[in-house]
Amino acid sequence: MSRIQPPGRPFDDPELCASRAELARALRTFLPAEAVLAREEEVRPYECDGLSVYRQTPLLVVLPRDVAEVRQVMRLCHQRRVPVVARGAGTGLSGGALPCGEGIVLSLARLDRILALEPEALLARVQPGVRNLAISEAAAAHGLYYAPDPSSQIACTIGGNVAENSGGVHCLKYGLTVHNVLAIKLVSAAGELIELGGEALDGPGYDLLALYIGSEGMLGITVEVTVRLLPRPPLARALLAAFDDVGRAGAAVGEIIAAGILPAGLEMMDGPAIRAAEDFIGAGYPVEAAAILLCELDGTEAEVAAQVEAVETLLARAGATEVRVSRDETERARFWQGRKSAFPAVGRISPDYYCMDGTIPRRALPEVLRRTAELAAEHDLAVANVFHAGDGNLHPLILFDANRPGELERTEALGARLLELCVEVGGTITGEHGVGVEKLGQMCVQFSARELAQFHAVKSAFDPAGLLNPGKGVPTPRRCSEYRQLPSPAHPHRH
Ligand SMILES: Cc1cc2nc3c(=O)[nH]c(=O)nc-3n(C[C@H](O)[C@H](O)[C@H](O)COP(=O)(O)OP(=O)(O)OC[C@H]3O[C@@H](n4cnc5c(N)ncnc54)[C@H](O)[C@@H]3O)c2cc1C
């Protein structure tokens, strides 16, 4: 399946070939030849991210090794008005790293060093191409870790995490990327080095660090990140609760939080996701259940014991048919292994799947799960749900077969409808995967024209020529007026 956005010219288009050759020559005046990929077979692997339905071959791929080289590349592209799309590991799920056909992909993969680890200051300074998990692995020797833990953490980079404001299982208690980053060095569209944030808890002026985090590579190129490290909790235990009704499991989530308990993670999987994960990993999940909740509690032994008892009682009262408590670290890891492998597991039961990402207030969980099933049936498609229930961050996985005529279109229509449902109940169209190219239409539902104008004003303050990741994140007014005229779903406007 492939959908080119926007319709691109062929790789061997004579005009493109000429500008490719000329730009490659200019880049190679200060970069080694092998750091500039120009042949079709070399650039093809960069044509999409994890949302492979959108593909576009870039003009060139450039792999700098240090900040000085990144700055030189940016200066050259700025002088020549060449668009630049930054790329980490390419695991993004909203098409954020989708290349621009007439621009370069700037891969930060070679900037992959942990520059400093300061256990006494509880921080690490890392380059953008460092993998998320590598930070916790390096910090483990000091009893520390980096809390935001996307399920893709084995592969995704901290530069990508910053761009998407990534979350994960433990973000309910410990916060998203934005809550765990202290400072950033970035290279601007014009090639200047800019520092945001610092080690102090507050700073004067606008909070540009918070503004930058989640800006999807549209405001600058991240070249260094200072992250907060946390002491590993002395003990963690996980509970696995089975339910014979999805709505009851959804309601139990709200009850746990309402009781004043803040789990380290509170995740939910429905029947299709449970069975797919069990077939794949054999985590010992109850395959007859309509839904399971995984609830992790951490702290001192006494704190964890008291919380486990309270949550067990709450779950039983909420209608759980079975509650298991992990007896040791091996069992806790096994409970989580099924959840962490759920996306690839679902990939085994369907030729294609489309992972949506929206956030709702927790109290709306039962209603939204019921409406999701109804909408899936209306679109004649199956959905597996596996998500960060405690945060209200939904990930409906729409199962489809792109080779069947019309299924991709129905899938996209269902996906759009599900995101708009999130807005209807007071939520948002993304929880952690970003807008990219995927959710430009739904941005027009979430925000008014006046609000979108402010987004554009911020973009042009950082990048007046519009060279950084063009066409992503924020829709143009024209695109919104076209989207609003589409016949399909009702477009409820909040404003
Ligand atoms: C199986 C699977 C599970 C996932 N689970 C989660 C999850 O639990 N939570 C979650 O939040 N996400 C999850 N994701 C999505 C994805 O892993 C995250 O969005 C991740 O942060 C992307 O990092 P990356 O290095 O792959 O970035 P890329 O995909 O390469 O890029 C993502 C965006 O960041 C920009 N970018 C990358 N590096 C830089 C830089 N140095 N400077 C400026 N901009 C940059 C790109 O232009 C693009 O817009 C999952 C993905 C997969 C495939």
UniProtKB/TrEMBL annotation:
Record-linked InterPro entries: FAD-bd_oxidored_4_C (IPR004113), FAD-bd_PCMH (IPR016166), FAD-bd_PCMH-like_sf (IPR036318), FAD-bd_PCMH_sub1 (IPR016167), FAD-bd_PCMH_sub2 (IPR016169), FAD-linked_Oxase-like_C (IPR016164), FAD-linked_OxidoTrans_Type4 (IPR051914), Oxid_FAD_bind_N (IPR006094)
Cofactor(s) this protein requires: FAD
Alphabetical keyword list: FAD, Flavoprotein, Oxidoreductase
Single GO term (MF): oxidoreductase activity
Boundaries of every FAD-binding PCMH-type domain copy: 54-232
Region Disordered, residue ranges: 466-495
PANTHER family documented for this protein: GLYCOLATE OXIDASE SUBUNIT GLCD (PTHR42934:SF1)
UniProt name for this protein: FAD-binding protein
